[in-house]
Amino acid sequence: PPRFDVDAMRGEFPALHQSVYEDTPLVYLDNAATTQKPQVVLDRMARYYAHENSNVHRGVHKLSQDATDAFEEARQSVADLINAPSSDQVIFTRGCTESLNLVAQTFARPQLGPDDTVVVTHMEHHSNIVPWQMACEATGATLKVWPIHDDGTLDMEAGRQLLAEETFLLAMGHVSNALGTIHPVASIIDTAHAHGVPVVIDGAQSMAHLPVDVQALDADFYAFSGHKMFGPTGIGVLYGKYDLLDGLPPYHGGGDMIDEVSFDGTTYADLPHRLEAGTPHIAGVIGLGAAARFVRELDHEAVHAHEEDVLQYAHEQLAAIDGLRLVGTAPEKTSVCSFVFDDIHPYDAGTILDRLGLAVRTGHHCTQPLMERLDLPGTIRASFALYNTRQDVDRLVEGLDRVQTMFG
Ligand code: PMP
User: Is ligand 1 within 6 A of the CB of residue 205?
Assistant: First the structure.
């Protein structure tokens, strides 16, 4: 099997090497919320601010040319990572949330009417529910919910029926942030296209774990955030098929997105700039470019084997704890373990775990409809990244033992 040097990988992430509450070494298990950043990303952003800082796309001066080059190289790095046919199809946004809102407001809203339906799954993150709800409310369209099974997989038969019912659009996650389920998006997109339904994929949780090829998936739109794939916060991406993006009306108006402005009317720039009004998050884009290269250069087979090992180990260890129940047991999963205790509230458990240096997330994970469907107030979620280890799982299990002793 391919070898993965997890210690060397950990060495690249400074935030992992610290203690919290005086002397307790940190175990960071909140990667689905945001990942830590490798030194190459931190260095690249510092270099921009220290040596290249200037505005992009306008300056005739050297610094502005350097910054613009770095900015557009980053766009190419992102395009290469997801195998976009052209970097013009990589639109920079503030994050996955803004990418989804952009599609909802410029693609869906102008076309939707009272007879139309948008479909989302029952396990979407709020940011892949609310933008569609807003577009439906504004146009009289209907939002329909693709039902799920108790194990956190989609009810495929119900989905096929929904897609056959003259659906305008399907919006769904690639990987569930709450349960870790990997959805079979390639075959779902196939089925959707057979019915003429375009598909928007929320890729927030896939980028740090799966190779993503937007052309192989045949995704119409693919949205993600930099900060969940080892890049900075405040920067995200919307990929789209060229003709779809090119047909979108402008989203925000302002500088950088125009061709010519006069009070008689304004003409707009070509892609990608037409959808990127104002001074962009230049350092963020450049940092994201470094993160994209970092991910692209990984030995994916070796990383995958390591992540699988840690996830399986975590499943085994957690399943062996009396009174603990794993939530979400889909056969195809990434590095997320959601679980509950029979008699301890997730928040109480999380508070104790925090004092023991264990950074986990508790609550509804921005998936309230899913929690309601599963009849849970929330879960405790340990989410792993490529730098987590079996020892991290052991620390979690020790922590959970303390939680049970305190509340048992
Ligand atoms: N979708 C999913 C599945 C997510 O996990 C998240 C972030 N938790 C988002 C969308 C939104 O991403 P952001 O907050 O970076 O815009």
Answer: yes
Q: Contact 141/117 with Cβ under 8 angstroms?
A: yes
Query: Ligand 1 centroid vs 232 CA: distance in angstroms?
Result: 14
Name the residue at shortest CA distance from atom 6 of ligand 1. Answer: 204
Half-sphere exposure of 320 (CA within 13 A, CB side): 11
- Tell me the residue type at 408: G
> Is 0.95 exceeded by the ipTM?
yes
Nearest atom, ligand 1, residue 233 CA? 15
**Mean per-residue pLDDT, 68-78:** 98
Query: Would you call 175 helix, strand, or coil by DSSP?
Result: strand
For 38-96, the DSSP string reads -HHHHHHHHHIIIII-S-SSS--SHHHHHHHHHHHHHHHHHHHHHT-S-GGGEEEESSH
Q: Is the pLDDT of residue 164 over 90?
A: yes
Q: How far is CA 320 from the centre of its chain?
A: 30
Catalytic, 337? Answer no
Contact 167, 117 (CB under 8 A): yes
pTM (predicted TM-score): 0.98
